[in-house]
């Protein structure tokens, strides 16, 4: 019997037997279900799964570990933090940064992204909470997205933070635009150029219904259990296709984006370092953090 049929036949028990558990840090953990061969990568950095250096490194390492686990056939990425998938980059990494740490931080984001976007196994983002900015980036890097239809939001809201949009537009002006990798490329690939143009400028955070309409997510679910079932069903479809041609096709469709990323990542790093350390950027970010702590940002 084909492995995909096996997954369908076994179904997804609410309490599946866990074949292997990799628990290295409290940030990110992973396990593989012995019945389905489905790996789960769990993000658990309270309070908001902020992507700091350690989290990004752990995330990449857990992904690589699952890839090397022969029992693992596909990966679901989700969160154990209530109402939060991920709030994106940990802004504190960029406020009054120490230069070496800042460099390592951005390199860890690039590395994580590179592994996720070119991942050999099928990946599904089970978006069970808010997913702004870097949270949306993680979801966009997967092959399929199932989102809980609750009062959550998802999107790239960087312009509203006043940081990344000036960064990328400044970058386009000052530093060879063609060679700059844009993490927003994956978002453009999902929602289309026109909608991306509009919503990246506006820093729109979509409701789940809007995200579905715009192609940013593939399915909605009314409960965590249903989201899990839909994620497993999506994986079964991926696994019904022979693995190598499926992976080669994924690689091929994403090749322009990944090539631009690989070619431009050094330039991207220097641009990021210059931008973040500019006094004006620091001023904006400090204000944003203050507003966040005072619960003022309007998402
Ligand atoms: N970084 C650091 N700390 C954060 C972040 C963050 N991204 N988000 C929230 N926090 C902190 C809060 O300040 C608060 O701290 P404290 O307890 O000390 O006051 C704590 O986490 C809990 O936050 P909330 O009380 O706000 O939690 P809620 O459950 O009420 O709200 C939200 C959750 C909706 C996620 C809310 O926290 C929020 O809106 N956060 C900001 C999200 C955001 O703007 N993220 C952008 C980060 S920049 C980024 O990711 C760039 C990505 C680049 C990708 C490329 C794009 C092109």
Automatic annotation (TrEMBL):
Signal peptide: none annotated. The keyword Secreted does not apply. Keywords: Acetylation, Fatty acid metabolism, Isomerase, Lipid metabolism, Mitochondrion, Transit peptide. It comes from the Eukaryota. One of its GO terms (biological process) is fatty acid beta-oxidation. Pathway: Lipid metabolism; fatty acid beta-oxidation. It is found in: Mitochondrion matrix. GO terms for cellular component: mitochondrial matrix. GO terms for molecular function: delta(3)-delta(2)-enoyl-CoA isomerase activity. It catalyses: (3Z)-octenoyl-CoA = (2E)-octenoyl-CoA; (3Z)-decenoyl-CoA = (2E)-decenoyl-CoA; (2E)-tetradecenoyl-CoA = (3Z)-tetradecenoyl-CoA; (3Z)-dodecenoyl-CoA = (2E)-dodecenoyl-CoA. SUPFAM superfamilies: ClpP/crotonase. Homotrimer. Belongs to the enoyl-CoA hydratase/isomerase family. Key enzyme of fatty acid beta-oxidation. Able to isomerize both 3-cis (3Z) and 3-trans (3E) double bonds into the 2-trans (2E) form in a range of enoyl-CoA species, with a preference for (3Z)-enoyl-CoAs over (3E)-enoyl-CoAs. The catalytic efficiency of this enzyme is not affected by the fatty acyl chain length. This is Enoyl-CoA delta isomerase 1, mitochondrial.
């Amino acid at each position: 019997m084909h492995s995909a049929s096996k997954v369908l036949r076994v179904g997804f028990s609410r309490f599946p037997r866990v074949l292997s558990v990799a628990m290295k840090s409290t940030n990110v953990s992973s396990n593989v279900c012995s019945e389905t061969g489905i790996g789960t990568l769990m993000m658990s950095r309270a309070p908001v799964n902020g992507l700091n250096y350690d989290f990004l490194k752990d995330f990449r390492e857990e992904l690589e570990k699952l890839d090397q686990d022969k029992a693992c056939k596909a990966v679901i990425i989700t969160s154990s933090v209530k109402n939060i998938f991920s709030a994106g980059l940990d802004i504190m990494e960029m406020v009054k940064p120490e230069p070496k740490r800042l460099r390592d931080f951005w390199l860890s984001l690039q590395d994580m992204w590179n592994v996720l976007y070119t991942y050999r196994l099928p990946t599904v983002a089970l978006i069970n909470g808010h997913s702004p900015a870097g949270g949306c980036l993680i979801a966009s890097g997967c092959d399929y997205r199932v989102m809980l239809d609750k009062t959550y939001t998802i999107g790239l809201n960087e312009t509203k933070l006043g940081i990344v949009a000036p960064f990328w537009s400044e970058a386009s002006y000052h530093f060879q635009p063609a060679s700059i990798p844009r993490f927003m490329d994956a978002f453009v690939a999902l929602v289309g150029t026109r909608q991306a143009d509009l919503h990246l400028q506006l820093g729109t955070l979509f409701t789940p219904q809007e995200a579905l309409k715009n192609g940013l997510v593939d399915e909605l679910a009314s409960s965590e259990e249903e989201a899990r079932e839909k994620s497993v069903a999506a994986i079964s479809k991926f696994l019904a296709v022979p693995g190598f041609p499926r992976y080669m096709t994924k690689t091929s469709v994403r090749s322009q984006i990944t090539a631009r990323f690989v070619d431009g990542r050094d330039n991207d790093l220097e641009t990021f370092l210059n931008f973040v350390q500019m006094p004006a950027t620091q001023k904006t970010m400090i204000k944003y953090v203050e507003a966040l702590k005072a619960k003022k940002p309007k998402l």
